[in-house]
Every structure is written in C-alpha cells, then in structure tokens.
Amino acid sequence: MLEVKNVSLGYGATTVVQNVSLRLDQGEIGCLLGPSGCGKTTLLRAIAGFEPVRAGHIDLQGRTVAAVAQRVPPQHRDIGMVFQDHALFPHLTVDGNVGFGLQQLSKTERAARVQEMLELVGLQGMGQRWPHELSGGQQQRVALARALAPKPRLLLMDEPFSSLDTTMRESIAREVRAILKHAKATALMVTHDQNEAFAMADNVGVMSHGQLMQWGNAVQVYCAPATQEVARFVGEGALVPAQSTPGGQWQTALGMLPAGHPHFQTEQGVQVLLRPEHVRLVEQGVSAQVRERTFRGSHFVLELELPDGQPIMAKASLNALYGSCDIVRIGLAADL
Ligand SMILES: Nc1ncnc2c1ncn2[C@@H]1O[C@H](COP(=O)(O)OP(=O)(O)OP(=O)(O)O)[C@@H](O)[C@H]1O
Predict the structure, then answer these.
(1) How close is the Cα of 188 to the center of ligand 1, in Å?
(2) How far is the CA of 33 from the centre of ligand 1 (A)?
(3) How close is the Cα of 86 to the center of ligand 1, in Å?
(4) CATH architecture of 2-228
(5) Tens-digit pLDDT profile for the chain (336 aa)?
(6) Which atom of ligand 1 approaches the CA of 42 most closely?
(7) C-alpha closest to that of 259 among 278, 274, 275, 272
(8) Is the pTM of the predicted complex or chain greater than 0.90?
(9) Would you say the CB of residue 263 lies under 6 angstroms from ligand 1?
(10) Whose CA is nearest to atom 20 of ligand 1?
(11) Domain boundaries in the chain?
(12) 42 CA distance to ligand 1 centroid (A)?
C-alpha cells in the first residue's frame, strides 16, 4: 500500500531525514516514534505531498507519488490527515465537518455517509452539535470521521492525541485503533509517546536523528531493540558493561546473561540492556543504593546505583518500601 524507499528530506542546507525505508500493507497501522526534532513530521508531510524528496521515492498502491523529479500534488494522492489540534471548522456542525470532503456526492448519499461515519466513531445523534460543545476526545473522533469519510487510500495522523489529557491518551488510542481496524483503513501515525504507539500500531518505527533505527512490532522493539538509541528511547532500563565468555555468554556485575540477550558494541565496549524486570531484589546479591522509587500500580520500579556509580533499575514488589539512600541486594531475574 505505502512504500517509502531510501527517502531523504531536508530544509535548506540541512538534511533532516536520511535514507529511510518502510512499508505499510493494506489495513496495517504504523507508527513513527521518536524524540522531538528527529524528523517524524517531516517524513509524514513528504508522504502527504507537502515536502519534496531529495533522494529515494514514495509509492502508493504501486504508483510513485514522489521522487526527485516527480511530485504528485497532495490533493491527488487520496490521503486523509488528522492533525494535533483536530482543526475542526468551528462554523460547521459535526455533520458539516464530517461531510466537508464529500461535496462530489449527492445530498442523500452525503447524509448517509456522514451517518455511517458518526456510527463508526460512536457519535450518532451528535450531528447537530457544534465543535465547541464537544469534549476533546469527541472532537478527536469527529476529526477522524472527517478524515475517513472520503475513503482515503491512506490516513496520516500527526500527534493526534497530544491535545488530550495524558490519562485519556492510551484509551483513546486503543479506541481509534479499533475504529481504524473496523474501517480496514491503512494508517501511519506520528507520536513521541511510546504507550500511545504500542496501543495503536501493528508496527512501530523508531526514529532518531533523521534515521529509522528499527521497524517492528511492539514486542520486537521492546525486547530486541536494534540499536542503543532504540533501547534508551523505548521502555526503561540501563546499559551495563559486559564481557563475553568463552561460551558466548555475557558476564556482568550482576551475573551471567545468555548470548542472545540484547547487547550493543559501544565506545566503552559491549553493553547489555537490563530492563527493570531483568533485575530483582534478592537476599544475597550485589549491593546497590536506592536513588528513587516509582509506584507503577502493580509494582515499584527502583532506580539504583552500584558502588562504582553504574545506574541500574529493578522491578520490586509493593512490599519493597525502600527509600532514597537505602542499601538493597540485587541479582538477575531467574528466567533470563
Ligand atoms: N519548515 C522548516 N524549515 C526549517 N527547518 C525545519 C522546518 N520544519 C522542521 N524543521 C527542522 O527539521 C527537524 C525535524 O523536524 P520535524 O518537525 O520533522 O521533527 P519531529 O520529529 O516531528 O519533531 P516534533 O515531535 O517536535 O514535532 C527539526 O530540527 C526542525 O527544527
């Protein structure tokens, strides 16, 4: 459905997206995740047709819509967009907003399609309301209905939940995923919030400094990060020095890890990734000082420091009421 191949983009003398390749199949939801300024929005804008490509090409349903000397204008790409602020037309009702892109349909057909879209997003009966009479989440669903109404080939969403309450974002993301799956829509979203990305996407693309570091499902990205940047950006944990053993395992300050454990070649030698769930409090183990304790509902995450200053994180039960500066004993979880 969408193929981005070796695409580079930039502004003036600066390259902000470098040699990015990814593909989305029909009905797939993808998400570009990465820190502010890594080039996510620029890539999305290039797919929509608002930025020229400097190298590579972008294909939609097998047809090239952007290449170095070729650019199909945005209005001819058949792409729907949802923006950060929902951007509903304040002078139009919900019906008017959702029907905005359906001018080519007859009045009856338009009304039927608007009705169908409002049912899809769970807002039936609200067609006569004005945007200011809706909650943020409802406005977001109207924006989605409006973007999906003309049946675009591809839906692009740029931080669609950023103006919503943080506590609502993940549940709305799950809701929107269900709506998109029901509509069999192909969609690409941009976010810097990993919970949102994991709640929403079939595949997540982690970007850093204009490059796509990894494209994979949530489990692949979390459990087998392709680079240090992905390991640092996605989830929690610490990179800890390790030495290889003759048997191919990794020797760390906390013990031995299997050969396949995520590890990275760095300037400081090999480092392994220890997520909080890889490290446990034990009776006999390495001593570490507590720096911070964070409540996570079902457990605590302890931020710790080894005697040599190496930071490390551990998952602990709710009985572990340790405070700052307390000394605990830690070891590797048994199931690694
Ligand atoms: N119109 C522009 N002219 C010049 N530089 C730009 C322009 N738009 C973005 N940039 C720069 O390009 C880089 C990538 O920006 P982009 O908006 O794509 O990042 P992003 O990952 O979407 O960030 P955010 O999450 O903050 O929106 C940034 O360094 C930004 O300052």
Answers:
(1) 18
(2) 14
(3) 20
(4) 3-Layer(aba) Sandwich (3.40)
(5) 999 999 999 999 999 999 999 999 999 999 999 988 999 999 999 999 999 999 999 999 999 999 998 899 998 898 998 877 668 899 999 999 999 989 889 999 999 999 999 988 888 899 999 999 998 888 888 998 999 898 888 999 998 888 777 777 788 888 889 888 988 889 999 998 898 899 899 999 999 999 999 999 999 999 999 999 999 999 999 999 999 999 989 999 999 999 999 999 998 899 999 999 999 999 999 999 999 999 999 999 999 999 999 999 999 999 988 889 999 999 999 877
(6) 18
(7) 272
(8) no
(9) no
(10) 37
(11) 2-228, 236-332
(12) 6
Residue 20, by phi and psi: left (phi above 0), alpha (psi -120 to 50) or beta? beta
Ligand 1: residue whose CA is nearest its atom 16: 39
CATH no., domain 236-332: 2.40.50.140
CB 302 within 8 A of CB 328: yes
Q: Whose CA is nearest to atom 14 of ligand 1?
A: 39
Round to whole Å and give the CA distance between 74 and 65.
9
Burial profile 208-238: b = 16 or more Cβ within 10 angstroms, e = fewer? bebbbbbbbebeebbeebbebbbbbbbbebb
Q: Is 36 in the pocket of ligand 1 (CB under 6 A)?
A: yes
Structure tokens at 307: 């005697």
Reading the block at residue 122, the tokens are 């769970």
**Candidate of 9, 31, 32, 38 to mutate for ligand 1, largest count of ligand atoms within 8 Å of Cβ:** 38
